[in-house]
Amino acid sequence: MAAKQTDYLAGLLDDEPGDPGSRSSASAQDSPTSEPSLPRSRSGATTLLSRESALARVASGEVRQVTQVLLDPSRVRIWLGNARIYGDLSEDSCRELISSILAEGGQKVPAVVRRVEGVPDIDYEVIAGTRRHFAVSWLRNNAYPEMRFLAQVADLNDEAAFRLADLENRARRDVTDLERARNYAAALERHYGAHQTRMAERLRLSKGWLSKLLKVAAIPDVVISAFASPADVQLKPAYPLAQALDNDAAADAIIGEARRIADEQRTLRDRRQPLIPAPEVLRRLLAAPTARSSEERPELFRWITPMGRPGLTVLSANRQGVTVRLHAGSGASLGQLADVLREALRDLERNGMGLQR
User: Fold this and answer.
1) Strand runs labelled E in the chain
2) For each successive 10 residues of the chain (357 residues), what is the average pLDDT?
3) At a CB cut-off of 8 Å and minimum separation 6, what does 349 contact?
4) Crossing angle for the helix pair 95-103 and 130-140, nearest 10 degrees?
5) pTM of structure
């Protein structure tokens, strides 16, 4: 891990003096193990492998005790503030993790959970470790009913839980830019009162990067549906698309094109053919406003060949001249095109738009 990234992780959960956070929590009644805290390193660096230090920094800067429990995953729900979309997980996407848990005889890296009160049949919710929860649940439902969900219990308020989940998710490439963007947009309202500057400071992010991420989060679902997968919506290429949607006229054209592309994608899926790649989808969406402007200009004259193909179109007629398109592949002979061109010019003259005005 690069030095800058290490420094970033070290300070991410470092609360300001007097700032209300959270504390690590112990509960011996349902805990098979209760481990003493690890001392803080001289540098104070926090990484994903030293989560005990991270949890303590959320609250008081010191680790008092780390409590690990073995749980039935059916009694553990997923916290809604996490970026990862649980419904998008599958056996295929979690295959490597499932195989690893089997090979190691159980889950080795604990998830982070917090207690849930007053909800029947639910005891905890996952703050960090959504894929681990899915993998253990899948194994219990597929020939390994004895498998338990290993978790670390912490007492976290919502904002601290969000920052901890963000800390872990940012180190994982399988959390998509769109998932993270929409997670940040929800957190902006829920935890930071819509103040981007405050959010950027708490998460140790640049204001510009956060602003771009929030912009991408606003891309509507109807546009996202044009892509083969939401995972194709990456921050850098999607940002110009998000900007283009600010213009109402352009947005209408983009949404219309997105619906057409989505229909094409569905047809390709049904036929088990390769889907339209993200760069081509982006190109078509961004070109849609210009294409519509061109299409909306009325054609002054259009000739269709006996074979049903366009042969000649008059695109414009003004004081500078007449613009004519001769369509390739129309099957028309040069003689036919010459005759149709004369007819088109006569038609323009009759309507006061000819070359003689």
Assistant:
1) 23-24, 33-36, 65-71, 76-78, 111-115, 124-128, 149-155, 301-304, 310-318, 321-326
2) 39 41 37 33 40 52 61 92 79 91 91 91 92 94 93 89 84 78 91 92 91 94 93 92 91 91 92 92 92 60 86 84 90 93 89 72
3) 355, 356
4) 70
5) 0.57
